[in-house]
Write a structure and sequence with these properties.
Helix content is 38%, strand content 21%. The protein has helices at 6-17, 23-30, 34-46, 80-89, 115-125, and strands spanning 66-74, 94-99, 106-112, 129-135. Strand 2 and strand 3 form a beta hairpin. The protein is built from 5 helices and 4 strands; from the N terminus they run H-H-H-E-H-E-E-H-E.
Amino acid sequence: MVLLDSIDYQIIACLQQNSRMQWKEIGKLVHLTGQAVAERVRRLEEAGIIQTYTMTVNLPNNETNLTAFITVLMKTPSSHSSIQALLTRHQHLIQEAHRISGDGCYWLKVSTPSLEVLNTLLQEIVPFANYRLNLSVARLV
């Protein structure tokens, strides 16, 4: 049984969005070398976690993606740079990020391939901030 860490989930998310993405490109997003990414992908393939590579062509109602709206409430003012760095690391999942006024400090629109990937992102937010999570149940327009 292979144990996956947050970097494995990030690599999987990158490949789910674009299975032709180069190891070096993924490495920049997850802060690894291209060679380290290739080794992790090889391990995931051998474990049967990555089974095939495919492509999706313009399927606007693709139900495999989960859309979440996250309101981030900072614990301390000094954590803003940390949360902004986290958002940069996860830009492959974050469709929109806004610094907001009113209730909360940041508002994120996130698209993830699974609840597991979303939960990994939320676990990385917790050291710096609390959050309020809303999941999209249907897209209307």
